[in-house]
Amino acid sequence: MMARLEARGRAAVERRVSAARERVRDAVREVPGIAGDIVDEGVVVRGRGLRRRWLNDARLRWLGGWM
Length: 67
Description:
Layout: H1 2-29, E1 34-39, E2 42-47, H2 50-56, H3 58-61
Antiparallel strand pairs: 1-2
């Protein structure tokens, strides 16, 4: 009984985590010149001048807010 409950809980958490990664990736892709891909358990953000743009563009500094 408890094992099934734990399995259901893990599955629910994984679905929410996966959805959060997808939202962050999609939001990153809306910023011109920036690419985002889901890799393993995270989101990789790439783009030319990303470090400079990170300093100047609040959308890139607050990626966690997109979850």
